[in-house]
Amino acid sequence: MRSSHFGWGIMLIENKLLSILKNFALGSLLGLFGMIVTYLSATPNLDTNSDTNSSKLVDTHTIAHIYGSGFFYSFALLCFIAPITEEFVFRYLPYRLWMKLFPEDKREKIIFWMLGACQTVFFVFGHFYDGMKVVPYMQFLLGVLSWYKIEKQGFTASLAIHFGVNATLLFSSIGLIKYLSE
Question: Which residues contact 92 (CB under 8 A, 6 or more apart)?
């Protein structure tokens, strides 16, 4: 009888890990999609004969700051610290506020999605910076998808998606930056 309880626990852990991996893969696909669209939308604007940084995809100072700090620092910052902080501030706290302010019998979907739209707008504006040449549409998609996932599957699902997006962006942007600098 004891072994069946143990087996059930293992199965629950396997299901949770599989769910996390699926959400990570979903985030990776979103990150890859974002890099491809960003590259394609910025490529016509790249002027290789120009001496100014205005033709670059992103500000070179930002690139040097993030990637010049060392790979492990960049990996920890972009793939762990930023997603955990952003998901907590932009998704978890508003979601918990919604749960607390509206009892289960008074939770309207329209209020849920209005709050989701607000957190997504703040999340997008948090990703604008001087030197950005493209609109952060991918952050908008990430915000909406993570908001949906936090309700359906919980905080770890939205976190796994964000980890996937940032890890894909880190690794693909290193290759893209190397390609554009040659």
Answer: 150, 155, 158
